[in-house]
Amino acid sequence: MSLVHSYIKHLGVNSRIYSMQELDDLLSAEDHPDYMKKHRAILIGDRVRFVASLFTLLIPLWIIVDYLLLPMDVLLPIVVIRLISTGHFYYLSRYKTAENDLKKNLLILGGLLINLPLTFFASAHFLTPVTDQEMGQLALQLYTILPYVAIGLIGLFPLSVIEGMVISLLLVVLTITGWSYYATVPVDQIFAMLWLLCIILGVVLFAATLQLQYMIALITRADHDPVTGAQTRKSGMQSLVKAFEQAHVHGGNLSIALVDLDNAENIIAEFDYATYDHVVVEAADILHDDLRHSDMLVRWGEKVFLLLLPGTDCDGAAITVKRIHSKGLGTLPDGSPVTASISVCERVADNIEEWSQMLEVVNTRRDNAKHEGKDRYFLCGDKVVEH
């Protein structure tokens, strides 16, 4: 068992998977944060349009090959099928989702990929009668590679293992149906082709998962503070603007809270910078543990964190802040607690019309908490609560 465990650990290190959470993120995208889903939706949508544009040009060009290989009575329905396929690709090349919806873009990706197997499936019906001719047999063999092309395209997209397998299963079912239903491939060759299909499928699924892994790493590195793991100020500002726009359109609640650690200069003077860094990291961990999956933690400044709480009214924000304040934000080496001055602003209760107003209000309340003695928090309506 120790040998197996050692080998699994070796595989994890070489594939840069160091925790079960990282493995879960590759197996399923269900728990990915919203910003990750947004980036992935954009990338998948862009690549779908690029591939669709490419095939919009390539599919009609294949008509030249059909013209050279097929008799005229077979050529006409094949051309019609190709034009329908081209029309579908052209539609996808121009299609854009309204709000970078990941699920919708995954469905569009599935629609893109099944085009080629369906083209093979439909064409085989007309090609089968001419397989006794050398040219007809060659044409059919060329059409037989279309499912392989579709499966190969999976590797161009950052997909989780489950997403890749669901799409692949659909393609494999269509491919096998096309092979068997029209008897386009001898039975004794189907197993060999199926084995090749599975090998190609394994490679492209691995490639798609690697793309997802590197995408997660790059986005995390660009949008997150490397010390605390919280979102950077730039990324947090973008998240705030988007959350405010959504709340404004739908008339929903949106709360933000500013958590400003107290006495940072005294901590550095009495201890050292290493202790101060530890305090900041520990405070970030505590704050993160108190947030819901939909909430966001932003490192707003050197010692300041912004909590973004979508769909949260004043009472909900008060509960979160009271919990954080009562629990504390860590301890110093001498055992004394780390405190913070905290302020809250809520879009509806504070009659906010612009997202920038929320920042002005929450900054003012934070400053008031500092001036009135620190270690306290201001809620909506400037209600102050001391320790």
UniProtKB/TrEMBL annotation:
Transmembrane segments: 48-68, 74-93, 105-126, 138-159, 166-184, 190-212
Pfam families documented for this protein: GGDEF
Xref: CDD domains: GGDEF
Chemical reaction(s) catalysed: 2 GTP = 3',3'-c-di-GMP + 2 diphosphate
EC number: 2.7.7.65
Keywords: Membrane, Transmembrane, Transmembrane helix
The keyword Calcium belongs to this UniProt entry's keyword annotation: no
PROSITE patterns, sorted: GGDEF (PS50887)
Domain GGDEF residue range list: 252-382
One Gene Ontology molecular-function label: diguanylate cyclase activity
Statement: the UniProt record of this protein carries the keyword Transmembrane: yes
InterPro entries according to UniProt: Diguanylate_Cyclase, GGDEF_dom, Nucleotide_cyclase, Rev_trsase/Diguanyl_cyclase
Name of the protein this chain belongs to: diguanylate cyclase
Originating organism: Candidatus Thiodiazotropha endoloripes
Source species taxonomy: Bacteria, Pseudomonadati, Pseudomonadota, Gammaproteobacteria, Chromatiales
